[in-house]
């Protein structure tokens, strides 16, 4: 889903011009990004929770050459699905899919 699709949907359901709808959605997304950048957790009731997770620096392995590679520390965006969504079959199937090594893999898909 691209940003234009929610803009089209909101512009049709709310009597607001499309360019104003796009501006409101852009401001909304910028507010979420700013909150995450300052270290806050963003919780949207009935949808889910966004937060940044800090990953420490570690040593990895280049799969082709078998050389060790230093992987720097970084922050990654984590989205946790609200419990109301977990009843949906499509999302539930993605969230509980087993990885090949036997551990549960959490993957977020946008419908």
Structure report:
The chain has helices at residues 4-13, 18-37, 89-95; strands at 42-44, 48-55, 58-61, 68-71, 74-81. The protein is an alpha+beta fold. It has a domain at 4-80: Irregular (HU Protein, Chain A). It has a three-stranded antiparallel beta sheet with strand order 1-2-5. Strands 3-4 form a two-stranded antiparallel sheet. Helix 1 (4-13) packs across helix 2. The protein is elongated and about 60 Å long. The termini are close together.
Largest sheet, in brief, is: 3 strands, antiparallel
CATH topology (fold) name of the domain at 4-80:
HU Protein, Chain A
User: What structural category arises from helix and sheet content?
Assistant: alpha+beta
Order of helices and strands: HHEEEEEH
Count of DSSP H/I helices: 3
Number of strands: 5
Q: What characteristic shape results from the CA principal axes?
A: elongated
| Mean pLDDT across every amino acid position | 81
Q: What is the highest CATH level, the class of the domain at 4-80?
A: Few Secondary Structures
Give the N-terminus to C-terminus distance in angstroms: 7 Å
- Largest sheet strand order: 1-2-5
What Rg is obtained from the alpha carbons, in whole angstroms?
19 Å
CATH superfamily of the domain at 4-80: IHF-like DNA-binding proteins
Fraction in helix: 25-40%
Strand content: 15-25%
CATH architecture of the domain at 4-80: Irregular
- Which spans have pLDDT < 50 for at least 5 consecutive residues? 98-111
SSE blueprint:
Layout: H1 4-13, H2 18-37, E1 42-44, E2 48-55, E3 58-61, E4 68-71, E5 74-81, H3 89-95
Antiparallel strand pairs: 1-2, 2-5, 3-4
